[in-house]
């Protein structure tokens, strides 16, 4: 990680020195803008009290936490919880399952959002466009419990309509709900159905800002629809895509506890267990709060590394990063 | 200017609101014994109100102001831990079982050790010392257990199907197989279609959770979670009988005598195939008999008799009856040390619990208020008809208040009178069958013992075997795969669990 830091510092040094102010000038600045700072205060207090304050609880990852003894009273155990976790035979399986699901979601669901946004953008009939938009937003507002129940109905063994249809088409007899090979496709499909429409909102907003003159110029030059999308639309929303990608990668390991928990059963647990369900299972149902906090903390650290890594990569390729 | 003032006001108000939320809570009131605070779970949609008729009567009987903090059942364990970590701790807490969280708290000194202290209170002295021992943590009694009927296992079947095919109710596991096969293959509903099967099993995998698998394994003689072999305790799944039983279940799965989606079938729909005439057999607790009868009664109030038949436990292939009991308790009432500081205070709290466990309070908590929602007929509680607002309120409230009942010396209330003669007959037969089976009950010899390794990772360990069992039955792995999983249980920490359990068992013998 040394290289990116040096790189970032070098880049920072080349920028005009915006933040370097002397104390005296800062107090003048502060006096001038005091009402704005006061306005900022509730936000700062909110983050301090509700976001940063509770973080001291993370210390139980390094303790043997007993609720009765409290966070402060429980004995320290160092990195015992972490070494236990890494030595656990479950660890490689959890990491693998989490990463595979994460990359499937990122590799399939994320591009599909852009594709759907582009498709919607190309619809010229305003009534149709609005109707479709509304329809694809709706699934986002259904809870995972409902999505899972729908899946159970549609794929129910022998009687589910999709079970019958797909097995007839493929000439097979697959129980989609319990076959480990079908767990991931099912999860990704649910995710696409539920979230793709909602995800288009930001891209549609970005698409609305694309300069219409460029299209007209391109049409005069004889560019077809695909050319126009490729050479005008996509480059215009490139920075939005990058920002959304960085955010998506930061959230990548949050594979969605409810969805996976609801779709898990004894026959597919092998491929279904991810960090989130493991934390619930070990932490809440077995009362191993310290251990599961350690697992959660590990997951957060990986998330931070991913965010910084992607941001750095984006800057490397001369794109504007997130920060 | 106006805008500026507004924004300032908004900022000040927000800041004030934030500082207010920061100082809530406060010191717990000193244990004064005009009032007793209790934390208990509620299983209804709403907890009872603080001014209901039951609440008033309860305070009248106990002579104390009773403050009950109802917490939803689904998140009760979390709430227990949060409460113990906080400063406002009640004097009595309903604890739902020996969860790892509870054991850790108890061993850290969160609760009074009541071992040997209960016998001087007439209503707290148990007539079931075995169950009290089962509810203990390695022999230490941390609470007064909430007694439950120890024998509840039953096999329910469609009586009309059985009659149509001219079969007898099953007595042995071999009979169960024969009935299931006949229900599957001989068109018991007479519609000319091959659309029925024998046994319905829902998604229910965990080891030792009284699932149909656990029950059938016990019938085969595998024991109840743990069993004694050659002077040592071993987990049931390390016995030959366990494998025999699973082979038996797998044979039924393979021959389609069991619903093929047993690994995913939603347990809340368990009654549906039975009621709709798809699957004819259910292995579960005997109270489901009444639930099933009620379904048929609602559909056709004039013709619901003789739809549901039942028997108790079945004989194993060795010709012996190994009946499957429950643990006989459902959690306990524990007294936290943080709110009850001295032995003298503890004595007062136990006296209160003694009254709470007496006949008057027992009837109130379980039956309700005589003359309001029930009357006593032939020593049974008959619901008041027609229902009034007052009787409905009491009937609803006692569903939650019953959570406070302990009944450590048998039930302290009236049995409920059944609405029809037929249902009364069924109810009486259930009581008789369960009483008879109780004599052949095979208990878990390791029930009182809590192994440190098991507390740390028992559930993960058990999942290895539980999942393998389902995979074996579904045909995803073969018998060798099941055996390998059991070996993996040993090597992943199970060996240590065995060692610890055996040591505790030897020490307490």
Question: How would you portray this structure in words?
Answer:
The complex is a heterodimer of chains A (323) and B (509). With 323 residues, chain A is mainly alpha-helical. Chain A has a domain of 225 residues: MetI-like (MetI-like fold, Orthogonal Bundle), CATH 1.10.3720. Chain A is flat. The N terminus of chain A is likely disordered. With 509 residues, chain B is of the alpha/beta class. Chain B has 2 domains: 204 residues, 3-Layer(aba) Sandwich (D-Maltodextrin-Binding Protein, domain 2), CATH 3.40.190.10; 172 residues, Periplasmic binding protein-like II (D-Maltodextrin-Binding Protein, domain 2, 3-Layer(aba) Sandwich), CATH 3.40.190.10. The N and C termini of chain B lie far apart (84 Å). The N terminus of chain B is likely disordered. The chains are: A mainly alpha (323), B alpha/beta (509). At the A-B interface, helix 3 and helix 16 of A face helix 1, helix 3, helix 4 and helix 16 of B.
Give me the count of strands of chain A.
0
* CATH structural class of the domain at 92-316 in chain A: Mainly Alpha
Provide the number of structural domains of chain B.
2
What general form of chain A does the structure show? flat
Distance between the amino and carboxyl termini of chain B:
84 Å
Q: Could you estimate the helical fraction of the residues of chain B in percent?
A: 40-55%
Biggest β-sheet description of chain B = 5 strands, mixed
Q: How big a fraction of the residues of chain A is strand?
A: under 5%
What is the mean pLDDT of chain B?
Answer: 90
């Amino acid at each position: 990680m040394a290289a990116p830091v040096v790189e970032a510092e070098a880049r920072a040094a080349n920028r005009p020195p915006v933040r370097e102010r002397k104390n005296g000038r800062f107090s003048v600045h502060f006096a001038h803008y005091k009402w704005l700072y006061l306005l900022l205060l509730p936000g700062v207090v909110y983050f301090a009290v509700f976001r940063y304050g509770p973080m001291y609880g993370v210390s139980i990852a390094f303790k043997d936490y007993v609720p009765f003894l409290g966070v402060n009273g429980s004995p320290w155990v160092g990195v015992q919880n972490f070494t236990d976790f890494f030595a656990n035979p479950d660890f490689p399986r959890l990491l693998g399952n989490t990463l595979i699901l994460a990359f499937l979601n990122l590799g399939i669901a994320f591009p599909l959002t852009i594709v759907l946004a582009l498709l919607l953008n190309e619809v010229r009939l305003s009534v149709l466009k609005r109707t479709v938009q509304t329809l694809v937003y709706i699934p986002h507002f259904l809870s995972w419990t409902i999505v899972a129940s729908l899946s159970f109905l549609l794929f129910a063994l022998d009687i589910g309509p999709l079970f019958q249809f797909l097995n007839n088409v493929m000439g097979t007899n697959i129980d989609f709900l319990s076959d480990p090979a079908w767990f991931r496709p099912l999860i990704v499909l649910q995710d696409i159905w539920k979230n793709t429409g909602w995800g288009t909102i930001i891209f549609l907003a970005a698409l609305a800002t694309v300069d219409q003159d460029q299209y007209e110029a391109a049409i005069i030059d004889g560019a077809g629809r695909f050319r126009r999308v490729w050479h005008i639309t996509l480059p215009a929303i490139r920075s939005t895509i990058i920002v959304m990608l960085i955010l998506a990668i930061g959230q990548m390991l949050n594979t969605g506890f409810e969805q996976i928990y609801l779709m898990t059963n004894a026959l597919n647990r092998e491929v279904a267990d991810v960090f989130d369900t493991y934390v619930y299972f070990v932490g809440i149902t077995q009362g191993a709060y310290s251990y599961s906090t350690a697992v959660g903390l590990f997951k957060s650290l990986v998330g931070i590394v991913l965010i910084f890594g992607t941001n750095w990569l984006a800057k490397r390729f001369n794109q504007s990063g997130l920060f | 200017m106006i805008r500026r003032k507004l924004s300032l006001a908004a900022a000040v108000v927000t800041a004030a609101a934030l500082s207010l939320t920061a100082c809530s809570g406060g010191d717990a009131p000193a244990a004064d014994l005009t009032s007793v605070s209790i934390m208990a779970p509620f299983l209804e949609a709403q907890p009872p109100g603080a001014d209901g008729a039951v609440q008033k009567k309860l305070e009248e009987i106990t002579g104390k102001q009773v403050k009950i903090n109802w917490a939803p059942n689904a998140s009760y364990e979390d709430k227990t831990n949060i409460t113990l970590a906080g400063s406002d701790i009640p004097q009595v807490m309903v604890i739902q079982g020996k969860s790892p969280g509870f054991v850790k708290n108890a061993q850290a000194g969160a609760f009074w050790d009541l071992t040997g202290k209960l016998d001087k209170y007439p209503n707290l002295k148990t007539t079931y010392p075995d169950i009290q021992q089962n509810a203990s943590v390695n022999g230490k009694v941390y609470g007064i257990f909430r007694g439950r009927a120890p024998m509840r296992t039953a096999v329910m079947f469609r009586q009309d199907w059985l009659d149509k095919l001219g079969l007898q109710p099953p007595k042995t596991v071999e009979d169960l197989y024969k009935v299931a096969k006949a229900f599957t293959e001989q068109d018991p509903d007479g519609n000319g279609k091959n659309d029925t099967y024998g046994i319905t099993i829902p998604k229910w995998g965990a080891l030792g959770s009284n699932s149909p698998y656990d029950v059938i394994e016990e019938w085969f003689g595998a024991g109840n979670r743990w069993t004694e072999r050659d002077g040592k305790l071993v987990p049931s799944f390390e016995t030959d009988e366990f494998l025999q039983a699973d082979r038996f279940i797998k044979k039924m799965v393979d021959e389609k005598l069991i619903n093929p989606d047993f690994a995913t079938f939603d347990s809340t729909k368990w009654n549906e195939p039975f009621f709709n005439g798809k699957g004819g057999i259910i292995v579960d607790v005997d109270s489901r008999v009444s639930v099933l009868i009620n379904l048929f009664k609602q559909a056709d109030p004039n013709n619901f008799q003789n739809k549901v038949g039942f028997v108790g436990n079945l004989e194993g292939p060795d010709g012996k009856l190994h009946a499957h009991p429950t643990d006989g308790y459902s959690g306990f009432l524990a007294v936290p040390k943080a709110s009850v500081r001295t032995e003298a205070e503890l004595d007062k709290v136990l006296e209160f619990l003694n009254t709470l466990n007496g006949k008057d309070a027992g009837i109130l908590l379980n039956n309700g208020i005589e003359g309001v929602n029930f009357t006593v007929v032939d020593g049974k509680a008959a619901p008041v008809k027609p229902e009034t607002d007052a009787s409905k309120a009491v009937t609803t409230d006692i569903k939650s208040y019953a959570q406070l009942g302990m009944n450590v010396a048998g039930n302290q209330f009236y049995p409920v009178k059944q609405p029809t003669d037929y249902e009364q007959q069924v109810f009486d037969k259930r009581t008789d069958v369960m009483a008879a089976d109780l004599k052949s009950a095979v208990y878990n010899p390791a029930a009182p013992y809590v192994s440190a390794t098991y507390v740390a990772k028992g559930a993960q360990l058990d999942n290895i075997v539980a999942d393998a069992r389902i995979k074996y039955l579904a045909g995803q792995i073969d018998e060798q795969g099941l055996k390998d999983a059991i070996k993996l249980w040993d090597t992943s920490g199970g060996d240590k669990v065995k060692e610890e359990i055996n040591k505790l068992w030897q020490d307490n013998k």
